[in-house]
Amino acid sequence: METAINLGKRKLAAATVLSSLLPSCGRTQGSRSQYPLHPSSLVVGYPHGGGADTLARLLADHLGRQLGHKIVVDNKPGAASNIAAESVARAAADGYTLYIGTRANAIHRAMYSHFDFDMARDFAPIGLLAKLPNVMVTSAQAPIATMSDVIALAKTHPGMVTYASTGVASDTHLLGELFQRETHTSLLHVPYRGGAAAMVDLIGGRVDLLIFSLAGALPYLRAGSIRAVAVMSQQRAPAIPDVPTVEESGVLGVDIDTWFGLMAPAGTPVEIVATLNECTNNILINREVQEAFMVQGYVAPLRPNTPETLGQLIAEETERWTAIVRERNITPR
Predict the structure, then answer these.
(1) In the chain, what are the domains?
(2) What pLDDT score was predicted for residue 297?
């Protein structure tokens, strides 16, 4: 019998083939040379195999087919993806260096003062790529099954219940801090360098909880090695429809998805930005691509999906999460 993971891989492969049948966005015309003329790089601030990397490789293949030139994924992990962001901010504004930005970049000034870039000043938004629900999970052997169990245990043993994250100031860390604030609990944060090590320790029972991307958690949920407590989103996730949301579990104010946005260095010609936005939207609205997203837990953005809407999201996220970072006294380690 075909496994769910193998089925997911087949759907992703089918979507890749289908992308070659989508109408091409064509080449950008203007005073500059036609774009693109050679391969581009898509920089990702996280290691190979994570949620951002999975999305980047899917996008790079489809977008490369649309543009007629290969797009190479360039992983540059470190400092909550801000090493990668700074490298792109300093790159030539010619459309050949692209970047997948996340919430971590919106709060970098509150965390890493030595990084000299500003999201509003140094980047040209292209469009929102996807949203990804996060899920609170525990080991399948842990005596925790519901959100009520988590809160009761945390209040009975304040500061003793551990929760892992994929790194300081990652979405999974910030959601954990927000969860503690809204539930009036105190958990012990255990940051890891990426999700793989955190998941190993969760399965082994060395940490109690992990707030993780749904895309990263799905293989382990399907294998039965971990248990989902709640989806930290406004709606239930189609990939795990029986798991309640945090609001359904009685916790308000922490139903926040991770987001991924496509960006380029500031000063990238507007006609190139428009071409990339058009190509991206051509891919995202395709039914087969959306099915591939569902297999991995991603949710395609609603239209209109414009550079302006992504820019507005970044501004709102910067204000909101910078305040939380300062309130919770989150500092890099």
Answers:
(1) 4-132+258-327 (3.40.190.150), 134-231 (3.40.190.10)
(2) 81
